[in-house]
Amino acid sequence: MLKKIWNKFNKCMMRYVDQSDYRYAKRQSEIGNKHGQFLLARMYETGNDAVKQDRVSAYVLYYIADQKGVKEAKHCLECLKPKLLPEEWQEAKTIIREKLCADKPNKDELIERKHDE
Questions:
Q1: I want to staple 84 with a disulfide (CB 3.0 to 4.6 A). Which of 9, 20, 69, 88 is the partner?
Q2: Is residue 44 packed enough to be buried (19+ CB in 10 Å), middle (13-18) or exposed (0-12)?
Q3: Distance from the Cα of residue 75 to its chain's centroid
Q4: 74 closest CA partner among 25, 18, 116
Q5: pTM for this structure?
Q6: How many CB atoms lie within 10 A of CB 83?
Q7: Which comes out higher in pLDDT, residue 16 or 37?
Q8: How far apart are CA 117 and CA 100, in angstroms?
Q9: Residue 65 CA neighbour count, 13 Å, CB half
Q10: pLDDT in tens, 70-107
Q11: For residues 55 and 47, what is the distance between their CA atoms, to the nearest angstrom?
């Protein structure tokens, strides 16, 4: 199912991603599927009638997917960061810091370094 949804993206058919595609990607993301997280990030980044654009959530999910080894996620992080408003960037950093890096020392440095690589 994820492959079917992904094919819609690859064919520039984002407008055809519907609520059922969104719900499926969201479920996969919630159970920790790295490809589901990446796909959900793409949906949030682009947005359409079925999925409201949310660049903060997109950035956070790309970050998670990148940490899990999805190669395309790093490129998407690099492309999305300049598009974020300063307050969106701060919110994304806060979410990553508090929810994803809570147990890591130097978490602010880790987030900045990951972005700057």
A1: 88
A2: buried
A3: 11
A4: 116
A5: 0.77
A6: 12
A7: 37
A8: 19
A9: 27
A10: 999 999 999 999 999 999 999 999 999 887 766 555 55
A11: 9
Closest CA to 9 of 22, 68, 62: 22
- 95: exposed, middle or buried (Cβ count in 10 Å: 0-12, 13-18, 19+): middle
Give Cα 2 distance to the centre of its chain.
Answer: 15
- DSSP state string for the chain: -HHHHHHHHHTT-GGG--HHHHHHHHHHHHTT-HHHHHHHHHHHHH--SSS---HHHHHHHHHHHHHTT-HHHHHHHHHHGGGS-HHHHHHHHHHIIIIISTTSTTHHHHHHHHHH-
Q: For residue 38, give both structure tokens.
A: 């990446």
How does pLDDT run across 42-64, given as a tens digit for each residue?
Answer: 989 988 778 899 999 999 999 99
Amino acid residing at 66:
D
Q: Residues, the chain, total?
A: 117
